[in-house]
Amino acid sequence: MNFEILLTILMGIGLSAASGFRIFIPLLVVSIASFTGNLALADSFSWIGTLPALITFSIATVFEIAGYYIPWVDNILDTITSPMAVVAGAVLMASVVTDISPLFKWTLAIIAGGGIAGTIQALTGVTRVTSSLTTGGLGNPAVSTVESGSSITLSVIAIFIPVIAAIVVIALLVWATKTLINRFTAKSKTSS
Questions:
Q1: Could you give the CA distance from residue 152 to residue 28 in angstroms, rounded to a whole number?
Q2: pLDDT in tens, 175-190
Q3: From CA 159, how far away is CA 186, in angstroms rounded?
Q4: pLDDT digits over 26-36, tens only?
Q5: pLDDT at position 71, please?
Q6: What is the mean pLDDT of residues 49-57?
Q7: Are 154 and 165 in contact (CB under 8 A)?
Q8: Residue 14: which of 188, 169, 151, 184 has the closest Cα?
Q9: Number of other residues whose CB lies within 10 A of the CB of residue 85
Q10: Helical segments of 3-108, H only
Q11: What 3-state DSSP class applies to 37?
């Protein structure tokens, strides 16, 4: 595997994690980067870099971000977006990884891209539920701001400095795994 392919895989990992925070922000960032000629996408995903896709992702991003600022609606959005984040993570991984066999690309996209997005999405869901329960939903706008900012930052870093994005994702995955295990362990102890 050459260095360029490795960089695209690391980019896909970063973008997949960003989609765990917000689905449409990384798609919009990838669309902008492709539309402006700063990112080459796999042939079957070149539609992401078109003007109609750019407009669609822009509108979807605005609505997604706005929805997360409405208390309790944000919890409903987490339920709806959880499976969508997994799909977005897989699509983002597959769209940026080029020059490898389709079997390896889609295996990587589904397992790494979808898995990373799903793990980060699960962490954000637990964080939001905790915020809702402890603050009555008043703390959720702060959580939403951090999540949106994380998605934007991680998306941009993934495109321009994929190695750093991968390091950040590894740290996030370790933290998310510990948090989720602790959450479910504590929950099972209280229900016994």
A1: 9
A2: 989 988 887 887 777 7
A3: 38
A4: 999 999 999 99
A5: 75
A6: 98
A7: yes
A8: 169
A9: 28
A10: 3-21, 24-35, 51-67, 73-96, 102-108
A11: coil
How distant, in Å, are the alpha carbons of 37, 68, 89, 124 from that of 65?
26, 5, 18, 14
Paired tokens of 97: 């990884």
d(CA 144, CA 103): 36
What tokens does 152 get? 């934007």
Nearest-angstrom CA–CA distance, 39 and 117: 21
Here the tokens at position 17 are 């994690």
Q: How far apart are CA 128 and CA 93, in angstroms?
A: 26
Read off the pLDDT of each residue in 136-150 and give the average, rounded to a whole number.
92
Higher pLDDT, 126 or 95: 95
Tell the residue number behind the tokens 């499976």, with chain if given.
83
Query: Which of 26, 20, 19 is CA-nearest to residue 156?
Result: 26
Q: Name the DSSP class of 161.
A: -
Residue with tokens 């987490």: 78
- Token pair listed for 71: 């208390």
